[in-house]
Every structure is written in structure tokens, then in C-alpha cells.
Design brief:
The chain is mostly beta strands. The chain is built from no helices and eleven strands.
Length: 115
Amino acid sequence: QVRLVESGGGLVQAGGSLRLQCAASGTIFSIGTMGWYRQPPGKQRELVAEITLAGSTNYTDSVKGRFTISRDNASNMVYLQMNRLKPEDTGVYYCNARLNFRDEWGQGTQVTVSS
């Protein structure tokens, strides 16, 4: 059984930074695109950023220039560096990965940005 475990969330003031990380573990024979989604309070889950196995990235417009996604294929980890955070970045951040040809999700980590 595979699992994704996020860490790095917390409370930060507007303009601050946080770094999220997500580790994939278990019996993994195939790993594809990895990404981060978030769910703001009272809203639907949305894509924040994703990165392919080859390193191609895609960001939602609201985070371009502020967030950077990266991955370490050797250790099956994905990271999200979040800079110049805004209150509207508040939400539960979920790691997502294509593992063994199935979409898997982490349990989520809370990010709260105070104004």
C-alpha cells in the first residue's frame, strides 16, 4: 500500500514564506506527475502546482512568481516553496501523485496566512 505524507504547514504573516514537503512511501513501481492542491475555507479544492517526472511545471495563475514546485525523484518527494504569502493562500494543502497508475492523496496540511 502506498501513501503520501505532507508536512510544513503552519501559521505565517502575510509576506512570509513556508515550505511544504510530501513524501511518497510504500511499494512504488511507477510514479508520475506530482502536485499540490489546496482547499480554501468554504471553497472547492483547486490545483496549485504540478510537476511531471521530467520536471515540467504548471502553476495556477494566482501563485505564479511566488510559489515554486520541485521534486526529488530519487526519494519520491515533492516540495512547494511558497513566498510572499497572502491571506487568500489560506487553506488545506493536499499532496497528489500518480502512484502505480492511480491518483493518491495525502491527508492535507493547514496553511494559514494572517493579514
